[in-house]
Amino acid sequence: MEEAARLLGIHPQTLRARDSQGNTRVVRTPGGKRRTRESEVRRLQGEDAATADRPATWVVQARVPSHAQKARGDLARQAAHVRDRSQGQEARTLEITDVASGLSDERPGLLPSRIGTG
Q1: Which residue spans within the chain are E strands per DSSP?
Q2: Could you write out the three-class secondary structure of 11-42?
Q3: Confidence (pLDDT) at 117
Q4: Bridge partners (DSSP) listed for residue 28
Q5: Confidence of residue 104 (pLDDT cuts 50, 70, 90)
Q6: Over the stretch 16-38, which tens digit does the pLDDT of each residue have?
Q7: CA distance linking residue 3 with residue 7, whole number of Å
């Protein structure tokens, strides 16, 4: 139940209260413990059956630290390698390429609006 509450971004006691009110479907173990099914967590997160059946999206990134490496074709080779590795997966792929230092994760290609999470 704690894991389900964490995934939902609520306190476990809130999830227990929702169960007591009949707003959440849980399963009771023989010992009386509450268990929340994964499908119930998805329902509470607002996913419907059509969303659950939709293939996942893989976000793959190719990055080189300098424009000189991009000019040599290193970025294109790396992007092709990443693209090849994702082929055959039952998922959509969003490819991001960057010329930036690996020491910072604040790059335009990684913005939530770019990868569809924001």
Answers
A1: 27-28, 34-35, 56-64, 91-99
A2: CHHHHHHHHHCCCCCCEECCCCCEECCHHHHH
A3: 46
A4: 34
A5: low
A6: 888 888 888 888 888 888 888 88
A7: 6
